[in-house]
Design a protein that fits this description.
By secondary structure, the chain is α+β, with helices and mostly antiparallel strands. The chain is 26% helix and 35% strand. It is globular, with a radius of gyration of 16 Å.
C-alpha cells in the first residue's frame, strides 16, 4: 500500500480552508480515475455517488457510507482521465482530484487532491483527518482491498485528528 503523506492546510478570510494532499500511487491513471470519478469506484473508499453525471455542470450527490452525511451539488471541473471536481453543500464544499502520470512514465499516478470549505478550526482538523483516512482507503482499494463499511471504526480517524491538531497548535510564545 502507498503511504499517504500528511495533508497541508491554508486558511483565508478567517473561516475558508483549503486542504492539499499529494500522493504517489503505484497504479496507472485509468485505474485511479475509475476510483475517483465513477459511481462504481467511489464507494470502495469514499462514498456512494448517485447521481454522478460525468460532465461539466452535471449533478452529483455524495452519500458517505460511514456517517449520515449526504451532500448534493454540481460537477465544477471535468477533464476526463485527469480532473474531477465536485462542488457540494456543507460541510464538504469543493472537492478536486487532479491526476498526473507518475515519474516512471505512466505506470504510476500522482494524485493532487484539494478540498475547499468554510468552517471552524475544529472542522478543518476533522476534514484533514477524514480526507487523510479516505485517501489511505483509496490506496488500499486500488491494491484490491476495498473498504467494507460495515466494519468501519473511528480509531484511525481519531489518531490522525490528534496528529493534525498537534501540527496546528500555536507555538509557545517565547519571552526573554
Amino acid at each position: 500500500m502507498s503511504e499517504i503523506p500528511r495533508g497541508r492546510s491554508e486558511t483565508h478570510d478567517g473561516d475558508t480552508h483549503l486542504l492539499r494532499f499529494t500522493a504517489g500511487l503505484p497504479h496507472q491513471m485509468p485505474l485511479v480515475w475509475a476510483a475517483v470519478a465513477t459511481p462504481e469506484g467511489l464507494p470502495q473508499w469514499l462514498c456512494a455517488a448517485d447521481p454522478l453525471e460525468p460532465r461539466l455542470d452535471g449533478h452529483v450527490t455524495l452519500r458517505w457510507l460511514n456517517s449520515d452525511t449526504v451532500v448534493s451539488g454540481r460537477v465544477t471541473a471535468w477533464d476526463p482521465d485527469n480532473v474531477a471536481e465536485y462542488t457540494v453543500g456543507p460541510p464538504h464544499g469543493r472537492i478536486r482530484f487532479h491526476l498526473e502520470p507518475g515519474p516512471d512514465g505512466g505506470g504510476s499516478t500522482v494524485l493532487r487532491f484539494t478540498a475547499e470549505f468554510r468552517g471552524t478550526r475544529d472542522t478543518k482538523l476533522d476534514m484533514l483527518a477524514g480526507w487523510h483516512e479516505h485517501l489511505e482507503r483509496l490506496a488500499r482499494a486500488l491494491d484490491g482491498h476495498p473498504t467494507d463499511w460495515r466494519d468501519w471504526a473511528p480509531e484511525r480517524w481519531r489518531e490522525l485528528r490528534e496528529l493534525y491538531a498537534r501540527d496546528d497548535a500555536p507555538w509557545p510564545r517565547w519571552e526573554p
